[in-house]
Amino acid sequence: MLRVASPLPVLFVQTSMPVGGAETLLVNLVRRMDREAFAPELVCLKQRGPLGDRLAEEGVPVHYNLLSGKFDLRVLPRLTALMRHRSIGAVVTVGAGDKMFWGRLAARAAGVPVVAAALHSTGWPDGVGRLNRMLTSITDAFIAVAEPHGRFLVDFEKFPASKVRVIPNGVDTERFTPTPHAMAIRDELGVGPTTPLVGILAALRPEKNHDLFLAAASRVLHAVPEAKFIVIGDGPERRHIEETATMLGLYDPLDPEASPLRMLGNRDDVPAVLAALDVLTLTSHNEANPVSILEAMSCGLPVVATNVGSVGESVIEGQTGYLVPAGDKRLLADRVIELLNEPLLAQELGEAGRVRVVERSSLDVMVGGYERLIAELYRQKTGREVQVTERTAPAEKVALAV
């Protein structure tokens, strides 16, 4: 069998690269891919966004501004020409919507051998839609981020089971580590070393349902008056969240630093911020395999989250945290209060979460899954082999992936 003489150009297709879970995963994937086997590039149909800028600064080819609006049909010849010019060997669209449609259609037009679509959600606002389903026949693989998510793609989205592959999301377990006495962030926030501190890490978008976090925080504050809360992330819902928090007495816009709740926005030091917390929550209406939970567990934090999507793959009830029904502010608050009042239990759950993430959700597991999938599909389509170096993922976890 012929081997590919030079690294295989792989093009990932996104709309833009703001700070978010799927975008952070893509940054880590691009950074970690074996440069002797693959030459990753990124196209943002619209603007690059801060994470696209970051990859460009690191020397990754980042192409952008190919789509001027929803009805800009010229995006197809632009993308097709780009893929031909760059001799792209594999295209991976990331997420549903326009990038999934135009990316795969252009790949077909350009004669790209491998066409795959990675999905990171279980529905609104990232539903696949009829047009994208029409391109199933030209797609070699649909990538799910957890086993339940894979079943969702087969049962609900109606993709052929033979084309659905599961590659679990992964986080950098060497960067996200437990840091006892993480006082720098607490000092910055004016929070004492023993003050109960509860956080949520999520883009400020409607589907993350920060209203539930605020409602639960209000209840927690009545039971644990010294508790403090932080919201990490930014997005279009910021003003609504601030107004709601103000109405609940959690936030004073005239004196935010003295408020029980602080809005931190996007942070470059997320591992340090997480390490300063006692409990992380996630309150989404829907999720697939959220990165924020994996990052928190990697830091040794117990997690209380809504039981949606594949969250239950990471948050094991009573072992690594607690699951609550979506929208249940009472139980969410009760579980947080329990963990704040029982620090030894919180520590036990956090330690178990760290072990689970290291074993199942490291970056090597995720990156190795993508590398093997692309190499396998490329070999099937061209008869040529991409030499992939096996990564040191636990054998039992490789079996879960591709």
Question: Could you name the key traits of this structure?
Answer:
Rossmann fold, alpha/beta, disordered C terminus, six-stranded parallel beta sheet, 15 helices, 402 residues, seven-stranded parallel beta sheet
Please render the helix and strand layout as text.
Blueprint: E1 2-3, E2 8-14, H1 21-32, E3 38-44, H2 49-57, E4 62-64, H3 75-85, E5 90-94, H4 98-110, E6 114-118, H5 130-133, E7 141-144, H6 147-155, E8 164-166, H7 183-189, E9 197-201, H8 210-223, E10 228-232, H9 238-247, E11 261-265, H10 270-275, E12 279-282, H11 291-298, E13 303-306, E14 321-324, H12 329-341, H13 343-360, H14 363-382, E15 384-385, H15 395-398
Parallel strand pairs: 1-15, 2-3, 2-5, 3-4, 5-6, 6-7, 7-8, 9-10, 9-12, 10-11, 12-13, 13-14
What is the first-to-last residue Cα distance? 22 Å
Rg estimate, integer Å:
21 Å
In terms of DSSP E residues, the strand content is 15-25%
CATH-level-2 architecture of the largest domain:
3-Layer(aba) Sandwich
Give the C-level CATH assignment of the largest domain.
Alpha Beta
Query: What's the oligomerization state?
Result: single chain
Characterise this structure:
This protein has 402 residues and is of the alpha/beta class. The chain has two domains: 192 residues, Glycogen Phosphorylase B (Rossmann fold), CATH 3.40.50; 180 residues, Glycogen Phosphorylase B (Rossmann fold). The chain contains 15 helices and 15 strands. The strands form three sheets. The protein has a seven-stranded parallel sheet, sandwiched between helices. A six-stranded parallel sheet has the order 11-10-9-12-13-14, with helices on both faces. β10, α9 and β11 form a beta-alpha-beta unit. The longest helix is centred in the last third of the chain and has 20 residues. The radius of gyration is 21 Å and the shape is elongated. The C terminus is likely disordered. Its EC number is 2.4.-.-. Keywords: Glycosyltransferase, Transferase. It comes from Botrimarina mediterranea.
